[in-house]
Amino acid sequence: MRSQGIKGPSYKFFHGNNKEIINMKNEMIMSSSPMELSHQIFPITEPHIYSWIKLYGTNFLMWHGSQAELVVAEPKLIKEIMNNNRSFPKREPREYLKLLGNGLVTTRGEKWLKKRKLAVNAFHAENLKNMIPDMIASVDMMLERWRDYEGKEIDAYREIKVLTSETISRTAFGSCYLEGENIFNMLTKMAYIVAKKKYKLEIPGIGDSIIKVVKKRESNVLTGEAESYGNDLLGILMRAYHSADETQKISLDDLIDECKTFYVAGTDTTASLLSWTIFLLAIHSDWQDKARKEVLELLGQQNPSADNISRLKIVGMIINETLRLYPPFVVFVREVKKEVKLGDLIVPANVDVTIPVIAVHHDPQIWGEDFHLYKPERFAQGVPKATSNNMAAFLPFGLGPRTCVGFNFTIIEAKIALSMILRRYKFTLSPNYVHSPVPRITLCPQHGIQVMLRALFINKLWWNPIWTQSQMRSQGIKGPSYKFIHGNTKEIINMTNEIMSSPMELTHQIFPRVYPHVYSWIKLYGTNFLMWNGLQPQLVVAEPDLIKEILNDKDRAYPKREPTNFIKKFLGDGLVTTQGQKWFKQRKLANHAFHVETLKRWRDYEGKEIDAYKEFKVLTSEIISRTAFGSSYLEEENIFNMLTKLAFFISKNEYKVRIPLIGKLVKTRDNTKSDKVEQDIQDSVIKIVENREKNVITGEVDSYGDDLLGALMMAYHDVDVNQKISLDDLIDECKTFYVAAQETMASVLSWTVLLLTTHNNWQDKARKEVQELFGQQSPNAGNI
């Protein structure tokens, strides 16, 4: 080789150059300072090839033990090698690589041709198109997990590994990641062994796990659950395994090896590409924004499809630049069995030929002096233009007859995943990220890729609702479809307006009038259904057993909903709206204030004859004023009037759409008016509190009293922090009981009187009972 101008490090007895290679790699790994955040990774991933190309030239000879390896980084010669599969076949895999099976990647000759044909059929264009729904479903699963990490850090590499495992399980083997998890875990151990070259280690059980998957598919065919083995990769392999034609037939070992190959190739290749793409976009936010803009313009709210992802030009440029800077495979290896001519060189027999992809992709003579910079615009006019029609200058998936058969599968999956991620999230690199690309089976991040997730506004407005709707429908819960931003509020308002436009006849069938939307949708979708109040999903549950489970809430899974802004102003953060420990404290106070002994005093405050709802409002206001606050309706009439105004604002705004953040920035007229009413109520309650305090201080009364206001004021002045409440708590609790007691009693009394006026027979029965039990006595705790 030297006589032909090919230099290289000298051969050392027995070891060749292994010791030098190991020392160079260890020096990089053991370096005290971490690698800087640079895309110039060639010196890190293959330090020996990087050093020796600089020392000996583009093509040189090195030694793996006693095995000669001709390193060829010249594109013209690479093209010749990769296109000539007969003279430069795949090298016989080393022992540790055989752990991954004798599948398509490692096999050769006639056996390779047979397996290649099967794989080509599995990844045919029409089959790829049919795989897209499964790819989308896999990405949806991942994005649902990400909802728990919004605003937090995730390891994108780990997440993408699970995603690509799920995708290959669904598309190639008709199962899911959980079914194949055991296989993936064992193959991950194997990948580690391959990287560490632990020759004698073996992982048992992979074959058995794959056979279980095969047996399950066979059983489905035998029992009639499935008509055929299917058109996915496993189905095609199983048909070949059962074929009567010896030229088509493969053995069980072949089937297992092929499954192992595609489990690995289908996960690692795409995981490498997607992970490094996310890493690069996390750093280069300008390109992340450009890609997102393109995705939103082309896809809008549609799912990715074969047609629309093929038009993602910017995303395609980004993927190609990722493959250039961080190729999944940093080297390809071929062998020369007998002497062959390569360009002007004569290559002797029994020489391995190594093609350092990373060297070609980072060659300044091909890509310019800015080769180490991230510039997707290089590919703006396609790969041929970017490489000046030098096809061997860009070979992330190989070249020639042995080009990766899953190349299109990987690109489609990457485009689908990226488009779905970009529509929902913005991501930046976490400060915890440590840059350390390492070549194992594929180029992967040694310490993962930590990124910070931030949900996009469109996520809240569209994707989260669509996912929730899909999840509920998959469980048989139907309902009206979610409409962008408005949900079902327009439909609800229209139904309500229509029903209210005409007077109702005197009937007790009030359900269609008070809740016309719930009435209609229960008839249409069933007892339980999902509807949308703007962006907020509402599961309507009318099934008694489920209602009991929800309201008993043994596991505290169904707390009170956070009240709307208007309800907070109306009721404050009192017993009705509050939750958790604060609720327990306030509930305890309320129980004390309305103890049965206190209620006995109500007999002294009976109202006079009433004939209208308005009268009952005055009556119940008087009762709550006297019993809970030790005053009278006339003293607190102003508070009740203002609370009535707030109730009007709640009713008016019940189905108005609330968009996150915007409501905080822009105030409506109703918001402004209700703010003023709320402040007036607060001032009025404070006056009542100050009045009670003044009476205690002047000695007019001995204590704050045993009514609700007294109990609240004692808690307000309590020195025990566990019992103490704030002034805001006190005011909110007063508002809550002013409203809750008045409105609840007024409603019950008013409708009872209406019903008794229309059903005289029951009015007579009730009167008879009262006269028999009470006689001339007043009601008391015993007789009522």
Overview of the structural elements:
With 784 residues, this protein is α+β, with helices and mostly antiparallel strands. 55% of the residues lie in helices and 8% in strands. It is built from 33 helices and 13 strands. The strands form 5 sheets. A 4-stranded mixed β-sheet has the order 1-2-7-4. Helix 9 (206-222) crosses helix 11 (252-283). It is elongated. 36% of the residues are buried. The model is unreliable at 198-204 and 589-605 (pLDDT under 50).
How is the topology of this model organized?
Layout: H1 18-29, H2 42-45, H3 47-56, E1 59-64, E2 67-72, H4 75-83, H5 109-122, H6 125-146, E3 153-155, H7 156-173, H8 177-196, H9 206-222, H10 233-241, H11 252-283, H12 285-299, H13 306-309, H14 313-325, E4 331-336, E5 340-342, E6 345-347, E7 351-356, H15 357-361, H16 364-367, H17 383-386, H18 407-424, E8 425-429, E9 437-439, E10 443-445, E11 450-455, H19 457-474, H20 489-500, H21 511-514, H22 516-525, E12 528-533, E13 536-541, H23 544-552, H24 565-571, H25 580-593, H26 596-599, H27 613-629, H28 633-653, H29 662-665, H30 669-697, H31 708-716, H32 727-758, H33 760-774
Helix pairs in contact: 5-10, 6-7, 6-18, 7-8, 7-11, 8-9, 9-11, 10-11, 11-14, 11-18, 12-14, 24-28, 25-31, 27-28, 27-32, 28-30, 31-32
Protein name: Cytochrome P450 734A1
